[in-house]
Amino acid sequence: MEQRKNVRLPLRLSGQLVLNDGEARDAETQDISLRGVFLEHVYSGEDERNCVLTLFAGDEDVFAVTVDGRVIYEDERGCGIEFQSMDRKDFEALESFLEAHVPDPAQLRREIRQGSIPALKDWMISGSA
Question: 14-118 has which fold?
Answer without folding.
Answer: Thrombin, subunit H (2.40.10)
